[in-house]
Every structure is written in structure tokens, then in C-alpha cells.
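Support case: arginine complex. Customer-provided input:
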Amino acid sequence: MALWGGRFAEETRRDVRVYSESISFDRRLYKHDIAGSKAHVAMLARQGIIPESSAAAIRAELDRIAARIDAGDFAYDIALEDIHMHVENALISVLGAEGARVHSGRSRNDQVALDFRLYLREAADRLVAAIRGFQRELVAKAEQEAETIMPGFTHLQHAQAVLLAHHLLAYVEMFDRDAERLTDCRKRINVMPLGSGALAGSTLPLDREFVCRELGFERISRNSMDAVADRDFAIEFVGALATAAMHFSRLSEDLILWSSQEFDFIELSDAFCTGSSLMPQKKNPDVCELTRGKTARVYGALTALLTLCKGLPMTYNRDLQEDKVAVFDALDTVELMLRVYPPMIREMRVKRENMARAAADPALMATDLAEKLVELGVPFRDAHRRVGAFVKYCKDRDRRLDEVTLEEMRETIPEATAEFLTMFDPQASIAKRKLPGGTGFAPVREQLEFWKKRFADGL
Ligand code: ARG
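Agent response - structure generated as follows:
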């Protein structure tokens, strides 16, 4: 009752307090809430809306509140609902009437939008830095494996020989776009909503541009109703997280396959695996499996946010309080991935001999034969058919493609020359792939140089 003042005659029901509180999850906004309030009161004093002395007292007390929260010396009470009420209440309990001036010209609707934007701006920067760190780790591993040949897959079937470095660098590209997406959505996060009030702005002579500058925002919001109503910036942010999680999940699936007995391409270090409570021989790639599972949670957060907003009438509705649950969960999940994966990749042991053995399957070079025929003037469709017939010829006789004589090869490929018999070497096949962006030794070296230069340039 004390909380809502004059309008209310009855206390909120206990269960309803539990239902309405957000302090259990929005307390993590305290630094941003306090930074916002400090900028707000500085502006109120400059504009002559509150006395300079009150602003000074409020700012000093806000710093003390922040220090208390940092130290774990702050009591939370669900009766105070959210972080905004907690900080305001703490101010008033020490400063009395002076503290009661802090909320002039402000609503929790624009306040929470401000806090959330400050928080996500910081989180986006943290995420981008962590993604860069992970990319470096992938590039370092790619550099170590710059000569390691493995089968490349399509449809999970052996396709063509590739370099492991090329495979790893594909993920570096994917994570690069994730970092770009976060950087891009940061622009739309970085808009200052305070001064929008509950929905209609304020009659007080606030200086929104001052608050904007104080808090390092790019610009102020243009429309107060939009500023309190929409959460598209959070949706975009979680969309970027969901995409990053999807990339982690795909990488994980590769690692799971590669560490299976059937592939036996890598061994993850013990620190990232667990055993079975029953089967003594087991070593399971749990971290990778959990990443697939946790990715589902991040997708859930995105779906929750989109669903949360789709039916809301303008402007602020209390439903929006739930946005933070989804966003924080998605953020924590992806930040954990970004902590766990760099050391896991660093410590991953590559079984080069096993990869090489798998890549020695001459069928991986069938496309090279067809392309050789194209060079000799055979139309590609005919070349494809001839090599296909050759593959069948070998298969019917239970022989590998490199276990035939030139005469035998000529039964299906009349144009074949002695050179054709030398083309089943994966090393030679890769060496011939000189196109930029391909898996040849030279273009992969170029990719490595590109990334190393970018990192040296501070990206
Ligand atoms: N805890 C609320 C939220 O997260 C703050 C805004 C409350 N506004 C209101 N009019 N009840 O959305």
C-alpha cells in the first residue's frame, strides 16, 4: 500500500506479489538503473527542476547503494517489485523528501527501457569481444592444421578431400557474421528513451539530449510511444544470439561425429567430457551435446520474445516484464558457450593419420577426373557420365578406383591418359585447387593471413 500511495486502499495479495515481482531477475540491471538515475538527476538539477543540493545528495547516495549491492549488503523484498523501486526506496529511506525527487519526469516504463538498453549495449560489446577471442582460437588451430587433409562431406557422405583448416575457417566466417550482427543491432539498441515518461513524454522541461550525452547514447528516441512499447532491439539481439548458438550447435555436431569410434578423427580433452555411470569404457562429448540442447533454449527465448510482443496493444503492457527472463537466459547461455569452447578447441587433439586414411579413398577424387576431361574438351555432362560409369565398373568388381590399369579405365573413359592414374592422391588434388575461397593449400594460407592481419589490426 505504501508503495502505490493514495490510490490504493488494500495491500497486494501475497501470491500476487510473487506473481508480479521481477526483482529476482531484474536485479542484475542495478548498475544501469543507477547510472540512468544519476544522469537523470544531474539533468533535473541543471534544468532547475530540483535543487542542486538534492541532486548531489541523490547522486552520492546512489553510489553508496551501488557499493552496497556490489558488496552483497542490500536487502531485496518482493513487495518492492523491481530494481527500480528497490533503488528508489533505498534512496528515500536514507534521504527522505530529497530522495523522493528522483522520479520527477520519469516513469518506470521509460526507465526500464533505458536500463535494458544500457545493459544490452554492454552485453553486445562483451559478446563481440568474446566471439573475437573464440575466432582467434579457431584460427590458431587452423594454422596448426594447415596441411591436415580430411574428407569433406555433403549429405554426411564422403565428397571431396579438404583441409581441416578450411573446415575450421568456415566456422570463423560464421562467427564473424554473428559478431557483425551484434554490432549492427547495437546501433538500434543505442537509442536513449528517457523522457518518454509512461508513454506521452513529460510537461517538465527535461533535457533529453543532456541525458543522452551523459550515458553515451547515439541519439534520443523520436517517439515516446514507440520508446516504451517496443522491444524489437531485444528481439534482434536474441536473434543474433540464436544464430550464434546455431553455429555452436553445428560445430558441436561435427565434433560429436568426429570423436565417435566410426570417425575417430579427434579426441576432446578429458576436461570437456564425462564418463558413464554404468559403462566403464565410455567417454562422452557431453559439452557438445549440451550445446545442441542449450541451443534449443536460446531458440525458445527468441520464440518467447516474438510471441510476447505480437499481440500487445500500444503502448507499455506488463507482459513486457517477461522480456528480461528470456533475454537473460539466452545471453547467459551463449556467454557460457563462449567461455567453454575456446579452451575445448585449443585442447582438441587431431588424429591426423586417421583423417588422412579416410581422405585416401580415391573416390573422393572422382570429380577431379571429370574436370580433367573437361580440360580435354569433353562436355561436362558426358564427362560426369563417363566417370560415373568408371565408378560403377570398379564397384561391380569390388575394386578401388586406383586399383585399375589404364586399359581398364579406358573401357569407360576412352579419353583417359596415364596422368589419370596419378590423380587419386588427395595431396595433389588439394594442391590443384588454387581458386580463392577454395580448399587449396595456397588459398587456405591466404585465409589464415587474412584473419591474422585482421586480429593484428585489432579486430
Ligand atoms: N518491472 C517492470 C518491467 O520490467 C518495470 C516497468 C513497470 N511499469 C509499470 N507500469 N508497471 O517491465
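Strands lie at 149-154, 157-163, 191-192, 219-220, 266-267, 349-350.

Case will auto-close in a few days if no follow-up is received.
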